[in-house]
Amino acid sequence: MPTVISSVAERFARLGIDAAPGQESAARADIQRLEGLRRGDDLAGVPVDFSHGDVNAFAPIPSAIEHFNAGVTEGAHQAYTTYKGRAEILNELAGKLGEFTGTPVDPASELIITPGTQGALFLAVASCIDFGGRVAIVDPDYFANRKIVEFFDATPVYVTLNYQDTSRSAALDLTGLEAAFADGVKLFLFSNPNNPTGVVYTQSDIASIAELANRYEATVIVDQLYSRLLFTGTEYTHLRSTGIDPNRVITTLGPSKTESLSGYRLGAAFGAPELIQRMERLQAIVSLRAAGYNQAALNSWFSEPEGWMQDRTAAHQRIRDGLVTAFTAAGMHVRTTEAGSYVYPQLPELEIPVSDFVTLLRLQAGVIVTPGTEFTPNEDRRVRLNFSQEPEAALAAGQRIIKLAQRYAAK
Amino acid sequence: MPTVISSVAERFARLGIDAAPGQESAARADIQRLEGLRRGDDLAGVPVDFSHGDVNAFAPIPSAIEHFNAGVTEGAHQAYTTYKGRAEILNELAGKLGEFTGTPVDPASELIITPGTQGALFLAVASCIDFGGRVAIVDPDYFANRKIVEFFDATPVYVTLNYQDTSRSAALDLTGLEAAFADGVKLFLFSNPNNPTGVVYTQSDIASIAELANRYEATVIVDQLYSRLLFTGTEYTHLRSTGIDPNRVITTLGPSKTESLSGYRLGAAFGAPELIQRMERLQAIVSLRAAGYNQAALNSWFSEPEGWMQDRTAAHQRIRDGLVTAFTAAGMHVRTTEAGSYVYPQLPELEIPVSDFVTLLRLQAGVIVTPGTEFTPNEDRRVRLNFSQEPEAALAAGQRIIKLAQRYAAK
Hints:
Two copies of one chain form a homodimer.
Chain A: H1 8-14, H2 31-35, E1 48-49, H3 64-74, H4 76-79, H5 87-101, E2 111-114, H6 116-126, E3 134-139, H7 143-151, E4 155-162, E5 171-172, H8 174-182, E6 187-191, H9 203-216, E7 219-223, E8 249-253, E9 267-271, H10 273-286, H11 292-295, H12 308-329, E10 342-343, H13 354-365, E11 367-368, E12 370-371, E13 383-386, H14 391-408
Parallel strand pairs in A: 1-11, 3-4, 3-6, 6-7, 7-8
Antiparallel strand pairs in A: 2-9, 4-5, 8-9, 10-13, 12-13
């Protein structure tokens, strides 16, 4: 198959961000037309931005700022680190990540600190991808997966995650993944817990992914960003500890979400030494390094105060339960989040496009959600909510979503 | 000409970093072999790492840390910004950059905040480059220019900067640049002040670059990282204020060097709205945004205490004068730095490769410099020194470079 390469203009035409989380205030929506679609009075309440978590409601790990300030005071050694990160911090972090995932991490060859988990994901994919090639990604999954693949002029090969049947575990279409590998696809990229559905892959599915990767000599990048925020009854399997060839897997993780350190832009990738070395080479020209002083804040990660993670998890579980109960009672299909802070409810059939509804929800009800079309190439009536919010405000905003959806529901 | 695209393995094989600034401690040099090449006793003295500036010798803008901490205290609004950066900070920064460069900057469409000036440079090139295409870059110039071009499988077309004749202004080979444009090259990338030579382009050369870009409908990315640190007698011309089509130019700048904020990883790109929009789309998948809290530190930039920049500039000029005098006295050719904190002296002909000398200099004299081969595709005996260092230590280390070079000089 000949490699067909797009011009830079063609590539960027594909790379939209107007509906992306956090960009709503900049969206060039056709506000005047939408004003004409308003139905009924505005729905009053505390504004809630479900596109990302609220670090005022769930504050960063307390000692992060102290580590940062100590780094500034220390000066040169913390400001300028090698591209992978400061050796002392890599050493400590490797120990923690090895313990967390159940398989040791060599700080000298298997770990890189990045500007956010997004930075880790971009470098990881860029280190494995052939321009104009093909990459297997999950439908639905984190919106950037598809965009990174397309930026490199590669074609996504979709593998379905079956999550709609809430009576059973979600399941990856392993036949589809094998077919992609058998057809020559050499890279598979997925998030676990899945973003946006909150699904955790079964041990059996993770074992099968490992087995297929080994058999077809494919590389797997697994984004485990939410793997610490596990709700009651959820069992989590780390792909890197399943017998997958250690030279075929990169795991990404970071303290931006559960631990609320997003404002520091810190992440990590660990695994296959050759790929970590490529990522280091690439980081040298992409951003040099994660901000030096910020790296010091990583010392707070996996070293939270006693009980801090348990309290945080329980608080999120209560918000999840409130929202899932409310959406279910309103007849909106939703799966109970197994890990992480996303719910992905399905709106009723509407008389207007979901994209218009999402903007009207912001204008009429002060509620920002992310449309499902960011996560799947298919038509979808779902919206994603990051429920890491002030609990009362989140539940009240959930009610406003339901009310407004009812106003626009197809009769 | 058909586009030939390399495999990912081929691309990364080209992307070396072992000799890059800041990576010396990680370099996999053949230490044992080099130990056998030692000549004479070690040269004692305070170790100096000339690969980058010393933020302990020249501290960050004093208020930067206060702005950062205020950002953390403010919380959510500073942690999560749009991908381009927080609107309030873009507004203030646009005013300062417009005033500094002599042409207004629209904060809504012409400015993006990035993780370091390196981040700005990567996004700018990535937003203009065709995979497998050609890009005009200067010989010599900042090492990442070539590496970014090659990462995208593009071919550098070198345009020579004639800087060796110290009796006259340095001059770009405009005939070469025009030939490249006439041959279909659509992108030109250069640093002004030039890194590594410390040359500032003449007004005439900058005007010619603008005229050629307009005539051949080419885009120019100009890295002005050091354009605030101008020594006595230097006149600086901002390309964006020369009549170049504003849709054809992107300027990058940041507070990492002169202002010593490197540990915060902050930079900016400003200019052509369509390209800034592409950069925003790309930043969304590369690193999301410059770290939110860190962005607050930008409020200190161009708002330094009264006299702070003047003192800093004068202090650097004294170190420059000391080093240039010493190298010249030792018969090492060097051009007097016009702006920025680099000198680029030429070593005598040596009996060993320059790459070995650079490692021996670190082992025997505690001095780290960056070999000229990072900046030019040609053989070169030059080494780059960032002289933003504690003054006495820098001058003593300069003497150790001279002494060790004399030990290895060809007879």
